[in-house]
Amino acid sequence: MDEPTTLNMFKNVLFYFLFLLGVSLTAQEQYLTLREIATDSAKIFTEPQLNGLREKLTQFEQETTNQLVILTIENLPNQTIEEYANRTFNQNKLGQKDKDNGILIVFAKLDREVRIEVGRGLEPYITDAVASRIIRNTMIPNFKEEEYFTGIDLATYQIILLLTDSEALEEFKQEIEEEGEMGLGIKIFVLFFLSIFVAAGGFVFYKTYRNIIEVFRGMFIGKLGVLPGVFMAVFSLIPIMFSLVFVIMPLVFAVLFLDIGLDFEQYRYLLDRPIWIVFVIGGFLVLTILLALLKIRIKGEEDFKLSWFKSDKKYMSKTFSSGGTHSFGSSSGSSSGSSSSFSGGGGSSGGGGASGSW
Question: Residue 352 is inside which H or E element, if any?
Fold first, then answer.
């Protein structure tokens, strides 16, 4: 191998080595080197609050050798809080080497997230379920009120208590088990109850929407006058809206009840920019027209033609009378005799009846 080739290979190896070293150092810089047992990078504590936390956590470590560490940051560096907490924990090697008895609480202010990262040695005590309950019942309610110190201080108190009082820990775990058993039954009952409303709303939506499609089909083939057809379509939107309420509201309630972590605040901007409603209505109209045209194409027996006012009496009677929809078509003469058949007058239910709330 000649000297220039060897030199080029050496340069390439050196380049890649320096590149990987730079990437490694950059990754290391993402995670803070913790020099205090409580680090407030997000500036959410007052000086007395921060000093009080440090004193309490230091005393806990001296008495038990367990390390309970707090870190607050402004925002996460383009990664999940699970990744950030785990790598910060491992980079700082929290807890004692032979015990792995460290716990790290990471609070990300702008991301509105918090995590309790538990070392392997303490996982039998501060289980995932225990940590989750502390976050859910103690931290989050206070954080929503922007009482950040209160939420973290109470959480540290709970963790210290559970790690120093075995009876308190067993009682806490028993409450979790009972809560889970009771909660599962309640959730199944509530979801079943809500599914009744969703099914009823879905059925009304299907029946009404099918009529709207037929209204457009009737207009396109000249069986239904355009003007009366537009009125029929507009009035049919009323039961459509009621049916959507019956479908959407139970689904929203189910999401809130199951507490799946969906943040509705991030969609608040939709209330400030209602233009999206126009696009939804426009999309609904276009879809309805396309379905009406598809229905005409499938049947393949009608020609496209329009009648602005006049409607086919036979078509109206056959298609809409049994569905409870008024005929707005014009006709000559007056009907004679009486009919023994009954049909509704086109009304809709606004959800009357009985219900409960809690």
Answer: none
